[in-house]
Amino acid sequence: MKCTQIREFVSTKINFAIAAMAASGLMTLVACSSAGKAAQAPNRAGQNAASQAAPAQQPETQSAAMPLLKPVSAVSHSVARRGPLATFRDSDFGISMQYPWQYGFKGGHKLRVKGEETVNGFVAAGGVNLATIEIPAGYYEKTDFERAFLTVNVNRKLTAEQCSQFQAAEALTPVKTKIADADAMMIEQTGDNSVTRTYHTSQNGACYEFVLGFETKDGDGSDQGEAEQVKPVSQKQVFARLEKMLETVQIDEAQDGTAVASAPAGADVPPQPKQ
Questions:
Q1: HSE (side-chain half, CA atoms, 13 Å) at 186
Q2: What angle do CA 31, 32, 35 make, to 5 degrees?
Q3: Taking every pair of C-alpha atoms in the chain, what is the biggest distance, in angstroms?
Q4: CA-CA-CA-CA torsion for 219, 223, 226, 231, nearest 10 degrees?
Q5: Is 275 within the bounds of a domain?
Q6: Mean pLDDT for each 10-residue chunk of the chain (275 residues)?
Q7: 118 and 247 fall within a common domain
Q8: Domain for residue 228, yes or no?
């Protein structure tokens, strides 16, 4: 009987030990499984956050690498302001010029698009207006000043001899002069209330034209009180401003024969004349 009891006792202990070991292993397995899920949760959260952040950052990367394309301009000229002066330059015709930034600027292309008429003094067709710069009327308040302008035209279809000629100027004799360091021809036409000086210079296989225009108001004496306050503007002072711009003209030629522009050194804005 004692042997049987001993066997039962040993068997009971062995079963208890096996059960305890199984329970311990199960608890360890559950703990490891919980720890693995906990470790995977932050990783998945980080991956989700990264995947959500990626689309928000993608447009910025594309924008930096591929900026929006701007439409190509129909003209090749530009206007840049530096200090008191603005610079007009046209890369196609290799010309640049400076003028006070307060003056009005009209590009030839915009004038043609708007249908505004542009005239020139060339003896043959093919002239193109590049720009017109106007002196503001506010510079000459309480005077009969109407308008003053400098217009730049160019014609590539004229010979040097034709460039020295002027349309509708049979009775006028052109005089030799200079535009910066370049030889030029000039005529002056005078009307009742206007004076126009037209310059031609042949360079780089093209004829460049500069028209300096000055106009005054037609005093009809309708308002005697107002007429007494209006003084005649000084033609000399107005043309001094126009010629100041003409002195800054640069027409350059590249080594390959293509005309390019080169801006000259700046100058002070002409002082406002005293009336």
A1: 16
A2: 85
A3: 157
A4: 20
A5: no
A6: 58 59 51 50 49 44 37 53 85 94 89 73 93 95 96 96 88 91 94 95 95 89 62 96 96 54 37 42
A7: yes
A8: yes
